[in-house]
Amino acid sequence: MAHERTKEILLRADTPSERANAVREAIALGMPLAAIEEFLDYLDATKKTGEALVSLPSRAAVYTALAASLLLAATLGSIWLYRIVKARSASKPIYVAEFLGGADAQWSEEGTPEADGRLPAGRRLVLSTGLAKIAFASGTHVILEGPAEFKPLSPNEGRLSEGLLSAHVPPAARGFTVRTPDATVVDLGTEFGVAVQQGELSDVEVFSGLVEVQLDDDEEPTGETHAVRAGEAIQVWSPKESEPPRVEKAAAGLMRFARSLPPAEPAGEVAPVETPETAVERFGIPEAEAELVGPVHQPQGRLVWLDLAPYANEALSVSKGTSKNNDLMDLGSGEQTLAGVRFRIGDGTIQLRGSREAELPAQVEAIAVRRRVAKLYLLHAAQWINKQTRIPDGTEIGHYQVHYHDGSQEAIPIISGEDVRDWWSLDSPSLVTRGQVVWVGRNEATTKAGYYLRLYMTNWENPHPDKTVASLDYVSAMMTAGPFCAAITVELPLPVQADPIPLSASEHGSE
After folding, report:
1. Do 320 and 376 fall into the same domain?
2. What is the reported pTM?
């Protein structure tokens, strides 16, 4: 066996330099670092007690169990290897990574890096806000995004208990592992991101290459593994606390992982804040100024987009109602920030039935959420709310039904005059009392008639942020009005954090 040969190599090593070379050779032969350290500990113990080496117990089971664990890259210099072995035998900290710098990084008092930036194995890091870059001894670079809790465990392994992490793994560090509360993510030569929410939910997205996700249940492998390739994403979650985790496919890009530190801004320069005035200039519709007066929001938790593509039933290019060229092409697809909230617009909307369009669905069920929610930001509107249809303010034209994992439900009503009005500016200016106009545009039909288009945002605060939301239903009240939804953004709850300690990027270097 190859491992038996490595044991012989380690047995012959007497001096520190011989031991470092022997460790490097053992790694090159495929022996896991954990098994090497365990064997060296045994050798040190037998030297102290005078026990005969022939009494060494069989390690075959240990080697078999560890065969799938990560290997430290064979190209590592002997200095790192010598430090690891020497530190372990001397019961000193094993430094396996280094903090390279951050962007607006604030750490909790009990979870800060060491003053010189070095990170020993097992060091608990609690990043309250901002970004932090960590370099592992194996060559892997990690971007940690707060609020987050993370521990480097070895030169090629870490544990993410909360927050977001993106990893760039060079070929020499193939096998880098990120452990989460319910899964183990093993790199197979790639760049990927991992997210953990409230210590229960894991998202994995692969930017390039391939990873293997091994499901765990109470820290024990379930034997279930999933390969995730470039451009793919999955969610790992448990519907109930008593149930084992399961895997669901997800759309890439929903978590918006940070993959590098942003460039430093010039001293004294402040990023511009969107205001109603700049919004009017952006849309190029000055007559909408009286309606673009709502607040610019500042979400506290992380924003995650819901993937509405599987549920969309009407393309932006489709003409709504009875008018020709009455489309939403001016909205455009892709990421947009509206009144301070980021939305991801798809190629179509979810259009519900009104009494004038019987071919459309009355409701769309089970829009996947599968996470805890602090707030929902709903980008929506409706057609057929005008003088002819005579729908008065205060009328419920539809609702969103929130389904929690425990079986309970909450309804989010869509009220005419409070949340939305007609998407055409037939009654402009006429404000809503709960929502706000966040987007205006035109199409050929509105331009010809002398009007413009409006989309509204409703901000719903979840009364049960401690519960996981399984899904949403989007339901029409089956009146004349036909509600439609263009995008939904989720604000995640903030984990409980200690008071942060500011740490500038310049204290430990920069990108």
Report:
1. yes
2. 0.76
Alpha-carbon distance of 29 to 270, in angstroms, equals 54
Measure the CA angle with vertex 309, ends 308 and 312; round to 5°: 80
What is the per-residue pLDDT across 137-146, written as a single tens digit (0 to 9) for each?
999 999 999 8
The reply to whether omega before 147 is within 30° of 0 (cis) is yes
Query: 133 to each of 97, 101, 143, 146, 298, how far by Cα in Å?
Result: 10, 6, 5, 12, 25
> Where in the sequence is the domain holding 252, given as residue range(s)?
95-261
337 and 401 in a common domain: yes
Q: Residue 267: inside a domain, yes or no?
A: no
Looking at the structure of the chain, the number of domains it has is 3
Same domain? 118 vs 74: no
How far is Cα 471 from Cα 235, in angstroms, rounded to an integer?
A: 14
Q: What is the pLDDT of residues 80-137, one digit of tens each?
A: 443 444 444 445 678 899 999 999 999 987 788 888 889 999 999 999 889 999 999 9
Shared domain for 348 and 460, answered yes or no, is yes
- Rg (C-alpha) for the chain, rounded Å, is 28
The residues that bridge with 197 in the sheet, in sequence order, are 201
Burial (CB count <10 Å: 0-12, 13-18, 19+), residue 425:
buried
In a shared domain, residues 115 and 47: no
Tokens 């070929």 belong to which residue? 171
Confidence at residue 25, expressed as pLDDT on a 0 to 100 scale: 73
CA distances from 13 to 10, 19, 344 (A): 5, 5, 59
